[in-house]
From TrEMBL:
<keyword id="KW-0560">Oxidoreductase</keyword>
<feature type="domain" description="Thiamine pyrophosphate enzyme N-terminal TPP-binding">
    <location>
        <begin position="4"/>
        <end position="118"/>
    </location>
</feature>
<dbReference type="InterPro" id="IPR047211">
    <property type="entry name" value="POXB-like"/>
</dbReference>
<feature type="domain" description="Thiamine pyrophosphate enzyme TPP-binding">
    <location>
        <begin position="384"/>
        <end position="530"/>
    </location>
</feature>
<dbReference type="InterPro" id="IPR047212">
    <property type="entry name" value="TPP_POXB-like"/>
</dbReference>
<dbReference type="InterPro" id="IPR029035">
    <property type="entry name" value="DHS-like_NAD/FAD-binding_dom"/>
</dbReference>
<dbReference type="Pfam" id="PF02775">
    <property type="entry name" value="TPP_enzyme_C"/>
</dbReference>
<protein>
    <submittedName>
        <fullName>Pyruvate oxidase</fullName>
        <ecNumber>1.2.3.3</ecNumber>
    </submittedName>
</protein>
<comment type="similarity">
    <text>Belongs to the TPP enzyme family.</text>
</comment>
<dbReference type="InterPro" id="IPR011766">
    <property type="entry name" value="TPP_enzyme_TPP-bd"/>
</dbReference>
<dbReference type="InterPro" id="IPR000399">
    <property type="entry name" value="TPP-bd_CS"/>
</dbReference>
<feature type="domain" description="Thiamine pyrophosphate enzyme central">
    <location>
        <begin position="192"/>
        <end position="320"/>
    </location>
</feature>
<dbReference type="InterPro" id="IPR012000">
    <property type="entry name" value="Thiamin_PyroP_enz_cen_dom"/>
</dbReference>
<dbReference type="GO" id="GO:0047112">
    <property type="term" value="F:pyruvate oxidase activity"/>
</dbReference>
<dbReference type="Pfam" id="PF02776">
    <property type="entry name" value="TPP_enzyme_N"/>
</dbReference>
<dbReference type="InterPro" id="IPR047210">
    <property type="entry name" value="TPP_PYR_POXB-like"/>
</dbReference>
<keyword id="KW-0670">Pyruvate</keyword>
Length: 579
């Protein structure tokens, strides 16, 4: 019996084990939505309140599961809303399929109502970007789009005039899902030998561990332990080896630690393991250290730092080939590791004092410490952009048994709540904690009601300081006076209650502790903790020259215009960051 093309489209999604499609129904996509309705026992349609949230949730699902994320919207305005979330997927290199509606074919190219040239609009974000022109091969094109998204680790976009999926197709189609397989490049044996030689000869080797270690965390940990190599995690890779690992120096960069910065400046061999870390100012000066780089993407080799050895290969396979018996010690000297560990111990003593701050409003350092001490061992952290990122980078001790997701390269505000929704849908038995600034949360807060609709007991913490705090510090570091960074406060807890969830306000450390304990016990609806936090400055792990000049310029301008000295962090904190 003949099927509708839309039904074959949905069958292809099911073959590829797609569990959720995020989006909003509407006239130019409703034929596809109707096909999803018919197969709702096999694939879930998650109705959101804004299409940007659909795309951000699909991107987060891909980051968390390594599976294809799928979102859909009407053409025109709905499709345009999706662009931000799809750029997040593009820049974090995860597979996402976007199904976009379009006006019926008889109205194309007539400037019809809501007609937008979406293939042109999405050409930069997509690795596969097609306008569907016939119904007979719709399933085949969807299948090819999914393969391409997986192969190229990116976004596939299909623009579908809504009259085409409605048409009957006589032939059947078998997807390629069952036979599809990604293969890793072969390792160059000579380069591997050269890499081993460089490790043997190094006096101060240092590893920078990225998301390429996602499925090799234990192998990376064992290799670094045996060879006495300290390591720094990129923020997206936080927790893959474990923040509390004895070889860990934390993160590097503006959100990093001083020991990590200093190790970078002193290393003579940098092992870039599965990372394309973009902040070159925090890497060693070219020529001061040799470099071994492992990445499955050949274009990443040597892109950020000159590579002495480039291995285009899977990291787990490289480590196995370097040490097939897991007993080989290429670097027995532990002097550099011990020096780094002593530096970290000094840093941690300072961090320990910060974690114990007892203030009203709540000190962010102490708030994150409460989360650290009480969160489940398999908790999933969804972190928004802004000071939430800063404080989590420094004060969340993420374990290999936990997950940590954020908008790594696009850095888009409003990413945490959509990711938390995706996390709870995919891991219903795991604790999900979303941490947002008040500025970021306000961008997507309408979709808290989506978590209510689907009875998702996630915990959503809003760090409320009534300002765009991270932008405040960015303006100061650039030597600019603060402008338009204050936010009108609102009672987010009352909003959560009005949406049908649980809202709790916390203004003291004791109130936050009680709120968190209460949130852990809620099982059938989302919780929002409106946490009023102190406006602390999340200073960089190391204040570099340009930032220092900027802060000095800001201070002098402030004194000139306001006739007083600006409020600054304690002098001892600033001095630690400088020296």
């Amino acid at each position: 019996m003949a099927e509708k093309a839309s039904e074959q489209l949905v069958d292809v999604l099911i073959d590829w084990q797609v569990k959720h499609v995020y989006g909003l129904p509407g006239d130019s996509i409703d034929t596809t939505v109707d096909a999803l309705r018919k197969k709702q026992d096999q694939i879930g349609f998650i109705q959101v309140r804004h299409e940007e949230v659909a795309a951000l949730a699909a991107a987060a699902e891909a980051k968390l599961t390594d599976k294809l994320g799928v979102c859909l919207s009407i053409g025109g305005p709905g499709a345009i809303h999706m662009l931000n979330g799809l750029y997040d997927a593009k820049m974090d290199h995860v597979p996402v399929l976007a199904l976009l509606g379009q006006v019926d074919t008889q109205f194309l190219n007539e400037n019809y109502f809501q007609e937008v040239n979406t293939p042109q609009l999405f050409s930069d974000v997509a690795v596969y970007d097609k306008l569907i022109t016939a119904s007979d091969n719709l399933a085949e094109v969807v299948d090819e789009a999914i393969r391409t998204a997986y192969q190229k680790h990116g976004v596939a976009v299909l623009t579908i005039p809504d009259n085409l999926p409605e048409q009957k197709v006589t032939g059947s189609y078998t997807s390629s899902a069952a036979t599809f397989q990604l293969t890793s490049p072969q390792i160059d044996s000579d380069r591997l030998k050269t890499a081993a030689k460089l490790i043997r000869e190094a006096k101060k080797p240092l590893a920078l561990v990225g998301l390429g270690a996602k499925h090799a965390g234990s192998q990376v940990a064992s290799f670094l332990e045996r060879n006495h190599i300290p390591f720094i995690s990129t923020l997206p890779a936080k927790g893959l080896v474990g923040d509390s690992h004895p070889n860990s120096l934390g993160n590097v960069g503006k959100l990093g630690t001083k020991p990590a910065y200093e190790a970078m400046q002193n290393t003579d061999l940098l092992l870039m393991l599965g990372t394309n870390y973009p902040y070159t100012a925090y890497l060693p000066k070219p020529g001061s250290a040799k470099s071994i780089q492992v990445n499955t993407n050949p274009s990443a080799i040597g892109k950020r730092y000159p590579a002495d050895v480039g291995l285009v290969a899977d990291l787990k396979e490289v480590l196995f080939r370097l040490d097939p018996t897991e007993t080989t010690v290429l670097h027995p000297d532990d002097s550099f590791l011990k020096a780094c560990q002593e530096n970290v111990a000094n840093w941690n003593r300072w961090m320990k004092d910060k974690r114990r701050l007892d203030t009203t409003p709540v000190a962010p350092e102490a708030l994150f410490n409460d989360i650290n001490e009480t969160a489940a061992k398999d908790a999933i952290y969804s972190i928004d952009v802004g000071t939430a990122t800063s404080w989590s980078a420094r004060f969340l001790d993420v374990k290999p048994t936990q997950k940590f997701v954020l908008s790594s390269y696009l850095g888009t505000m409003g990413c945490a709540l959509p990711a938390a929704i995706a996390a709870k849908l995919n891991y219903p038995n795991r604790q999900v904690i979303s941490i947002n600034g008040d500025g970021a949360f306000a961008m997507v807060m309408q979709d808290f009601i989506t978590a209510v609709k689907y009875k998702l007991p996630l915990i959503n913490i809003v760090l409320n300081n009534s300002k765009l705090a991270f932008i405040e510090y960015e303006q100061q570091a650039a030597g600019q006076l603060n402008y338009q960074i204050d936010l009108q406060d609102m009672d987010y807890a009352k909003f959560a209650d009005a949406a049908g969830g649980v809202g709790i306000t916390a203004k003291t450390p004791e109130e936050f502790e009680r709120a968190l304990n209460r949130a852990y016990r809620v099982t059938k609806m989302p919780v929002l903790i409106n946490a009023y936090v102190r406006d602390d400055a999340p200073l960089p792990g190391k204040i570099v020259g340009e930032e220092a000049k900027g802060y000095m310029k800001f201070g002098s301008q402030y004194l000139k215009e306001e006739k007083k000295i600006p409020e600054l962090p304690p002098l001892k904190d600033i001095m630690r960051q400088f020296f």
